[in-house]
Design goal:
Layout lengths: L11 E8 L2 E8 L4 H8 L18 E4 L2 E4 L12 E3 L12 H8 L9 H16 L21 H7 L10 H16 L10
Helix pairs in contact: 2-5
GO molecular function: 2 iron, 2 sulfur cluster binding; metal ion binding; oxidoreductase activity, acting on the aldehyde or oxo group of donors
Organism: Streptomyces lydicus
Keywords: 2Fe-2S, Iron, Iron-sulfur, Metal-binding, Oxidoreductase
């Protein structure tokens, strides 16, 4: 493939991204990542730029309900998708159950990874409910039923999100609280008193 000598304006596209339920009209360079759009163009700074290589999970967001590393996604390829950041999880002043559980369980220290951890946990719980197996899911598990969420399952499924402070035990407890509340039919709850 020969190098292109197109002017910079021809390497940009106008598009609409649906971020946290709101359409955002943007004109972007084709090389712009979704993470850079969120942080630099829209001021949504919850997703963090950690490694910029998809290895730490600090930039995790939800794309059509599935967790994704926004540092690896080209924004122009996300036009028809629903993107949810940590800022879009709460309903007004009411925190998402995982946000509340992280606070209740003190599942953070410096907080840098926390938005990515929370978005990843939201996506992970959806994967579990949909019956998606992980590396530690028993081979005998029913593929049409939700996966039983053990501590090992949570650790395995959250292993793509790194915490340099080592808040992992509390993160697991927060996810367990929300999963237990949902299993008991109290999806808006999930934090211990």
């Amino acid at each position: 493939m020969e190098p292109t000598n197109q002017p910079a304006a021809e390497q940009r596209s106008a598009l609409v991204l649906h971020i946290n339920g709101t359409p955002q009209r943007l004109t972007l360079d084709h090389r712009t990542t979704l993470l850079d759009v969120l942080r630099e163009h829209l001021g949504l700074i919850g997703a963090k730029k950690g490694c910029d290589h998809g290895q730490c999970g600090a930039c995790t967001v939800l794309v059509d309900g599935r967790r994704a590393n926004s540092c690896l996604l080209l924004a122009v390829a996300q036009e028809e998708r629903q993107i949810t950041t940590v800022e879009g999880l709460a309903e007004g002043e009411r925190l998402h159950p995982l946000q509340a559980a992280f606070l209740e369980r003190d599942a953070l220290q410096c907080g840098y990874c926390t938005p990515g951890q929370i978005c990843s946990a939201v996506g992970m719980l959806r994967e579990v409910a949909d019956g998606f197996p992980s590396h530690v899911t028993p081979a005998t598990a029913d593929p049409t039923a939700p996966v039983e969420l053990s501590t090992d399952e949570i650790r395995e499924r959250m292993s793509g999100n790194l915490c340099r402070c080592g808040a992992y035990p509390r993160i697991v407890e927060a996810v367990e609280d929300v999963a237990a509340a949902a299993a008991a039919g109290r999806p808006g709850q999930g934090v211990s008193s």
